[in-house]
């Protein structure tokens, strides 16, 4: 059962956890399907997905107003952050937050004054969220992506930014930055240690600990490890796996899944 946007922050405060769907395909049809299958929340990926702003708006409409929907923006840039919030997304996942200054820049774009510098013009958001001007600060969640060695070194300073609500680990980029193969299934001790450290420090700081997972088994492992927000693979990967597996069943062969983790 999806968590309504106004209940999302309370859900974490009460000790709840979230399994999120991840949309990378530029389609209202696939977005609607993902949203109807019981994920706690949905993320729409404008960074590595194939989706542009206009398509993301249409997907947001197809997903529906009762589902907490986050946008991973292309970069730490105020313009796409503000446009995504004005469209009605209630959370932002921001890539490559490496320093306190990066975190302040990102968080400020998510909040109206005096808590930030977001420009007021919630064109669609105000139509679907009552009293938006006064409730947006508590409605919107800011997820800072921790995915580099630099970010790990600066983690305490990033977590000290009051308007950062959560951290979100990009496992592949984190592994790459630490000198290992970019994978969501790393077995390298330094990568696993960094992931555990990020989770632990986030919880001590009172922030939500989030991460991307490549399989259902990994989602369960990460939730057991203490993460509170875990995204399950991507729609592209799930569709590719389903097609390859079904065809292999027909032919009596082993599924050949193309595209690596994506």
Give structural notes:
The protein is α/β, with parallel strands linked by helices and 262 residues long. The protein has a single domain, classed as Phosphoenolpyruvate-binding domains (TIM Barrel). It has helices at 5-13, 28-35, 53-63, 78-87, 100-109, 125-128, 132-139, 149-153, 155-159, 171-177, 189-204, 216-225, 235-251; strands spanning 18-23, 41-45, 69-72, 91-94, 141-146, 166-169, 208-213, 229-232. The chain has an 8-stranded parallel beta barrel with strand order 1-2-3-4-5-6-7-8, surrounded by 8 helices. α3 (53-63) links the parallel β2 and β3. α2 (28-35) packs parallel to α3 (53-63).
Secondary structure elements and pairings:
Layout: H1 5-13, E1 18-23, H2 28-35, E2 41-45, H3 53-63, E3 69-72, H4 78-87, E4 91-94, H5 100-109, H6 125-128, H7 132-139, E5 141-146, H8 149-153, H9 155-159, E6 166-169, H10 171-177, H11 189-204, E7 208-213, H12 216-225, E8 229-232, H13 235-251
Parallel strand pairs: 1-2, 1-8, 2-3, 3-4, 4-5, 5-6, 6-7, 7-8
